[in-house]
Amino acid sequence: MAGDGLVGLVVLVGVERRRAVMRLTDHVTLVASGAYGFDLSDPLDCHVYLVRGTRHSALVDAGAGRSAEAIVRAVRATGADPRHLLLTHGHADHAGGAAALAERLPGLRVLAGAEARGWIAAGDEAGVSLDRGKASGYYPADYAFAPCPEVEALSDGAEIDLGGGVVLRAVATPGHADGHLCYHLRTPGHQALFSGDCVFTGGRISLQNLHDCRVPEYAASLNRLAALDVDALFPGHHEVSLARAGRHLEAARDTLARGLLPRSTT
Asked: What are phi and psi of 210, to 5 degrees?
């Protein structure tokens, strides 16, 4: 039943895209996406998702910050007024826009993993590996990570209740980066995972030569995610999966069980 409902909503994507958003399910809308996604916003942006319940709404990730105005317009066009911004990790394409969104959306509560909170609050380029990103040419030399002092630490297992049975639960998943969190979404009709840069469709991952990218922790995180019951997978980049998404998590786990590492997107 949940899978059928999710597939039925794919028809709406083309309609919504003309308004620079993509409605993915009854509760989830993609409001920004960059060059490694659907080109809805600035090329540096990750996927930015809006999750709506009956009482509140939340954003998952913030993009790089250069398209904050466009993201706010897209959110406003849906009629939502987000109360929470849930960051998956501190890398600039995911958290660099946190300060700009907090400024433009009064009352927005910004939340991140404890290990990444200080880097995001201070705009610490070395902590979030922006210095390495600039050296590689991924970020332009003049890009700046705006500090977001109001960011709060979110613990493993903490839940955000948006009303109407729509609940987001933080799942600690270090490996790609320290403080990485995924968010497990429960709704009355389906379950989903916002996986940040931890895991992508096909069981792919993102390994990088950065100070806090750690293979043993990554493997443990992937095994943990494979135990979740999910219908949909909403990663930080690339394709999304609207049905039978557990197969992607299981593919990563099964590769690890053979003593190998899943294919990396980076």
From this structure: -125, 160
Helix (H, G, I), strand (E, B) or coil at 208: coil
Residue from 218, 227, 168, 122 nearest 28 by CA: 168
Beta bridge partners of 184: 169, 193
Residue 111: closest CA among 98, 129, 100: 98
Mean pLDDT of 160-188: 98
User: How far is CA 69 from each of CA 1, 33, 63, 83, 254, rounded to the nearest angstrom?
Assistant: 37, 14, 11, 17, 42
Q: What is the mean pLDDT of residues 5-34?
A: 68
Give the C-alpha distances (Å, rounded to integers) separating 190 from 12, 40, 187, 193: 18, 26, 5, 10
Tell me what pLDDT residue 6 has: 45
d(Cα 13, Cα 20) in Å, to the nearest integer? 10
The model's pTM? 0.94
Identify the residue whose tokens are 């954003």.
59
User: Is residue 84 within 8 Å of residue 194, measured between CB atoms?
Assistant: no
Closest CA to 115 of 98, 102, 127: 127
The terminus-to-terminus CA distance of the chain in angstroms comes to 35
Residue 16 confidence (pLDDT) above 50? no
Cα 213 from Cα 132, distance rounded (Å): 13
